[in-house]
Design brief:
Keywords: Membrane, Transmembrane, Transmembrane helix. One of its GO terms (cellular component) is plasma membrane. It is a multi-pass membrane protein. Pfam families: NfeD. It is found in: Membrane. The chain has about 140 residues and is α+β, with helices and mostly antiparallel strands. It folds into two domains: about 70 residues, no CATH class; about 60 residues, OB fold (Dihydrolipoamide Acetyltransferase, E2P), CATH 2.40.50.140. Helices cover about 45% and strands about 25% of the residues. It has a five-stranded mixed β-barrel with strand order 1-2-3-5-4. Helix 1 runs antiparallel to helix 2 and helix 2 packs antiparallel against helix 3. It is rod-shaped and about 85 Å long. The chain starts with a helix and ends with a strand.
Length: about 140
């Protein structure tokens, strides 16, 4: 097979994969193969072409991967709801057995369940451990 065709196929296939996935998984190989194709057109040996492909692809990964990861995942910001985890609340309706009670946190009332189905009486302080659906999981402080 002619190396021009080989490198062109690598460029095309990796570009199609990149466009299809939009997750920056093959763009580096597209660039590396394009550089190897350029080397082939300039008359470089197969060993040089393969070396250029590997070196350019590796450099592209090393340089751009942290930036790509940051751009794709962004900054994860807690929502107002997430921010109550770890906070202390006051029980406003007792929590017992498998029965949900109610806890007041920052002027908001939440349906609450205790972590180990323990009894927690009104006016006791609790720590918010998690949010499950529309209620919170708490434990006595």
């Amino acid at each position: 097979m002619n190396m021009s065709i080989f490198w062109s196929l690598i460029v095309i296939i990796s570009a199609i994969i990149e466009v299809a996935t939009v997750t920056l998984v093959s763009i580096w190989f597209t660039i590396g193969a394009a550089c190897a194709l350029l080397c082939q057109l300039l008359g470089a040996s197969i060993q040089v072409q393969i070396s250029i492909f590997m070196i350019v692809s590796a450099i592209c990964v090393i340089v751009s991967r942290p930036l790509a990861r940051k751009m794709l995942h962004g900054n994860i910001t807690k929502t107002n709801t997430d921010s109550i985890i770890g906070q202390i609340g006051i029980v406003s309706k007792k929590i017992h057995d498998n029965q949900k009670g109610e806890v007041k946190i920052r002027d908001t009332y939440w349906r609450a369940q205790s972590l180990n189905d323990e009894f927690i009486d009104v006016n006791e302080k609790v720590e918010i451990l998690a949010i499950e659906g529309a209620h919170i999981i708490v434990r006595k402080v």
